[in-house]
Amino acid sequence: MKPIQSPVVQVCHLAASGMQLRHIAPSDSILMGAFIARLSYASRYFRFGDGDFSASRPQLDALCTPDPDQVTHFVMTCDRDGSLRVMASARYVIDSETQTGEVAVLISDDWHGMGVGSIMMQALIDSARSRGLRGLLARCLRSNDRMIRLAVRHGFVRLTPADHPILNYRLAIDTPKVCQPVVQVNTLVPG
User: Fold this and answer.
1) pLDDT score, position 111
2) How many angstroms separate the CA atoms of 62 and 141, rounded?
3) Which pTM was predicted?
4) Residue 29 confidence (pLDDT)
5) Which DSSP symbol is given to 26?
6) Going by fewer Cβ within 10 Å, which terminus of the chain is more open, N or C?
7) What gap in Å lies between CA 20 and CA 14, rounded to an integer?
8) How many CA within 13 A on the CB side of residue 96?
9) CA dihedral (18, 22, 27, 32) positive or negative
10) What is the chain's alpha carbon radius of gyration, rounded to the nearest angstrom?
11) What does the alpha-carbon distance between residue 128 and residue 101 come to, in Å, rounded to a whole number?
12) CA dist 4 to 136, 141, 163, Å?
């Protein structure tokens, strides 16, 4: 399958505040390292399975240079006081047999509860739809309430029993739609 760049976000300026949603780039390696280092133990645990996770330089380089045939990866950056920071990361990896993408969404702790996760998830959904994927899959620990709420809000349906330690949620994607997506952002200021 030939990769299709999302019509939703080639470079999408979210606000005059310096926030930007875009595809990850090889030059983001240092920014991603700093982003991961700033995360709480819980956020690193839920995303990487290890609260003490620290990405090595080769891991960061690989993260920032995904194979476009297999991976779509977005970052949201914020320029505050002349310092560029990653505030969110969202990606899906395509399973070529099932034509579904497995999603991962990670939001900086100081941006939780401000709608950033919804913006990132919608970018993934719109991208997957434009690529013609059949669906998206979200796997998370049963205790990861934020990811569960995010997936359910976006129409994902639980596939596994609620008492299972790892929950699987699936979103069936309808046929590609031709539309001009609208990104609406309220003024976001971390608390």
Assistant:
1) 83
2) 25
3) 0.81
4) 93
5) G
6) C
7) 6
8) 7
9) positive
10) 16
11) 7
12) 16, 31, 38
CA distance 7 to 177: 11
Spatial separation of the C-alpha atoms in residues 113 and 178, rounded to whole Å: 30
The kind and range of the H/E element at 41 are helix 41-48
Q: Which two tokens stand for residue 159?
A: 């596939």
Beta pairing class for 19-23 and 166-172: unpaired
Pairing state between β 100-107 and 135-141: parallel
Tokens of 90: 């969202």
Rounded CA-CA distance 21/29 in Å is 16
With a CB cutoff of 8 Å and minimum separation 6, the contacts of 120 are 21, 74, 76, 88, 89, 90, 105, 107
Low-confidence ranges of the chain (pLDDT < 50): 1-13, 16, 176-187
